[in-house]
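Progress narrative, work stream C.
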Amino acid sequence: MSDQQIFYPVLVMAGLTFVVWWRMFFTRVGQMKRERIHPQAVATSAQAASKLTDSRAADNFRNLFELPVLFYLAVVVAAQADLVTPVTVGLAWAFVLMRVLHSWIQCTYNKVMHRFKAYIAGGAALWTMWGVIAWGLLK
């Protein structure tokens, strides 16, 4: 298996982050234009929360810098330690697919229990990936 295959899920995560950023940008700018909200009126997160009513994309954008940070690190560690296997690549894809699903749910209809199930499944894939990497490093 090519070590490069572990980076394909990273490209998808970066693409997802860009798409969510784009959605957040257009949602915020659109509301600010429609409601004539001056940019200075939303200079802090507290001000933004009080004036910008649709925070789904912004909330999801922040989520993409929580667990995914550990995903990015796991990919680099796996690649550098020669631990790229079908298992680590499969777990990386599982994590990314669950993050895509999580983002789609949060940015659209936002049913918490649906989103939570995607979050748990993605988290399980990530923690399992770290377990496989730790096992490979320690043996």
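Work stream C, second folded protein:
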Amino acid sequence: MAGFDKVVSTYEEAMQGLEDGMTILAGGFGLCGIPENLIAEIQRKGTTGLTIVSNNCGVDGFGLGLLLEKKQVKKMISSYVGENALFEKQLLDGELEVELTPQGTLAEKMRAGGAGIPAFYTATGVGTPVAEGKEVRVFAGREYLLEEAITGEFAIVKGWKADRYGNVIYRHTAQNFNPLAATAGKITVVEVEEIVDVGELEPSQIHTPGIYVDRVVLGTFEKRIEKRTIKE
């Protein structure tokens, strides 16, 4: 079954085919469960004009914040962007286009994209700037916005364990946007802490089936703490 083996040996191979102007969906929440090495490879490649879909944009000097340093990002579609001074500067200087999206709506946009659903209605954002330019319909006496699904040429994902067929398990909070992003990329690349033989993962524990995954790469991770609070 060698043809089903999705493991690649290098990050360069993992991101093969990435080109300027593409849309990339990135898993993670804050600095938890982010595909940090795949992001670093995008920075190394110098790919530009990118649209990045992610809950947030990392921090200065780490995570997706790395891609801002070389101005590789043209547009961010995010729900929270408050931890990155460079992001703020590029936004205010008109160098970065930003589409702020309510967090639950962003999650559903990815899920719908992965499920082949082109759009959906949600009450979130009605009567706010989020609703500008969007269709509004009334269901059972309540107004709802029409929101379009999101897909991308690439999805970059951080998992805990995977087998060689691309079945993935996430650990704890990494089950945030990673499973959603994994389904919505034309090419989905997963970096993991451990790769096991086929059959070692308990089927009922698998979060992302291998059918969604194109490439798996083994990595080591820094696992930074975004904010540390200690008691004297």
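The mean pLDDT is 93. No further action is required on this item.
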